[in-house]
Amino acid sequence: MPGTIAVLIPCYNEALTIGKVVDDFRRELPEADIYVYDNNSKDDTGDIARAHGAIVKLEPRQGKGNVVRQMFRDIEADCYLMVDGDDTYPADAARELCRPILEDRADMTVGDRLSNGTYAEENKRAFHGFGNNLVRAMIKWIYGYGFEDVMTGYRAFSRAFVKTFPVLSEGFQIETELSIHAVDRRWRILDVPIEYRDRPEGSVSKLDTVGDGIKVIMMIGTLFKDYRPLKFFSLVALLFTLLGLAFGVPVIIEYFQTGLVPRLPTALLAVALVFLACLALVAGFILDSVAKSERREWELGVYREVRP
Fold this sequence. Notes:
By secondary structure, the protein is of the alpha/beta class. It contains 11 helices and 7 strands. The chain has a 7-stranded mixed sheet, sandwiched between helices. Helix 6 (128-143) packs parallel to helix 9 and helix 10 (229-258) packs antiparallel against helix 11. The protein is elongated, with a radius of gyration of 24 Å. The protein starts with a strand and ends with a helix.
């Protein structure tokens, strides 16, 4: 496979596993540069990675999203392979993930842990599978694309994808942001089934199931508003309209029966809700025009990025 490969490993307190991860990817991709970004680890993660031959850099801003942002800014390559440092992803799948990128058949390949059932068998953390399925369902409903595995940390990207991806998140929302960005910008996506294994004994996940899960859902809502404003504000308008009708219809019925409007505050509330619905719809049309204009500028930027 022609082209340069960079293996990107964001790390926080992975001293137990990082040496093996670096060695495994060095064995599978001897031609690749392996970068470990130490995100303020309290253990010897950085020193161990350096001793095993990785290029180690420090990212002081806490959070995986911050690490990925800096990685994408710093590193130049034809193919970027991103993997966690917890030794849960198989290095022997690295070439299968990189090959479609280097052959220009995909812009993002996704290490799919779910299709073959290994994640369900190996994962010991409660509600992680449920959260993954919830995020998948939300993206499918909003964007019409069904990812096999949204939250996987094992992916490969083309140079054009990396250099034109605006990282907005700071933490573990980054996987969701990568997935939504790829779908919204119509990048070529390819799922690659992989074997998943749970963390070894003594290795602790940094993911807060509830706290980070809420952040992921909020990120989906934010990107929904930014990327699909007409659909988002149409739903808001529909909600206000239904509330307005719920309050207003009994008042209208009562008026036709008696010729009076004794519940004036309720009538005013119904009118206000319908007015808000109209306002939301107008906002949706305006922001949709802005989003389409921004998309055109982004497409031109991508063209300039990939043009020889």
